[in-house]
Fold this sequence. Notes:
- By secondary structure, this protein is α/β, with parallel strands linked by helices.
- The chain has 9 helices and 18 strands.
- Helix 5 runs antiparallel to helix 9.
Amino acid sequence: MRKIRYAVVGSGWRSLFYGRIAKALPERFELAALGCRTEEKAARMREEYGLPAVAGEAAVEAAKPDFIVSAVNKQGMCQTVRHWLAKGYPVLSETPAALSMEELAALWQLRRAGAKVQVAEQYRWYPVYRAMLGLVRSGLLGQPVSAYLSAMHDYHAAGMLRGLLGLGREEMRLTGCTFAVPVTATRTRTEVLTAGEVVLKEQRHVLFEYESGCSAVYDFMSDQYHSLIRPRTLRLRGTRGELDDRTVCWLNDKNLPERAELDVAEDPATGEVLSVAFQGRTLYAPPFGPCGLPEDETAIAQMLQGMARFIETGEELYPLADALEDAYTAFLMASPAVTPGAGLDGPAGEGMAPGWYQRRTGPRPWK
């Protein structure tokens, strides 16, 4: 198998994931260059992380990568993607693909014109989530009818809900509101907090009603990724059973109820998920073999492999149309922090309290 060589443009926290993948799986992946804006920043990345950091576009191009990974900030993401596409490079974009309908539509037009662009939406490829999705697709729970998700935000959640419910890019109605909630701060991205300080965080609730008749509830608090007291929760209800995190309840062939747990084996030293099984049947095994990577890097590595396959064959691991749909859905989900008055679309609907909003999908070119 030919080694996949990629260059990352951007030197923030997210870019480090791509460096760790290359170090853990050097026979499969090579970080050809990490593009920084200044030589000072490049020198710091080389010294602190041992990454092949360079300054300027010319140095990135000189590394001759197979494709570019755009890992800049959200505000500059779409512009960076379009810039490197214009140079003739395939581009794997970090999420979200864009921050406006105009940018989403422009990306779709570029894709239709032949541009090789994909989005690194990784959550469906997390080991346990991948196993859950496989279990749902097996039909054990019957036809999916509703879901509850409190685990990931915005466009990530939109894609996961579509995956759980087996939905395409269908029409839907959203009803939601954002509340300011006092919580105790427990951790940031870099440190554990023990002062017991109570701070205000945003908690967003959104009800999805899909054209197919399925429904979903999104519940996310802004500190959930890092909080030590906010577990991630996922629930999927089907006509013949229910998945409640790692607990599965279903009807057997005699229509009698059964109950069992997903069996998740982890490496105690690294946290790597080594297997996920259900009643003796393997639902997940490490796609690259045990390599010490945690769930996020494991999922991103699959996106890198999917990008290489897309360039070679045109097969999409996560279709761009889905990425645009999920980013668009995040626009519909957005609301201000709770305040007296109306939502973004004007006065609240009839019978709705101030602060709540209701939106429906509209025309979009990738539909």
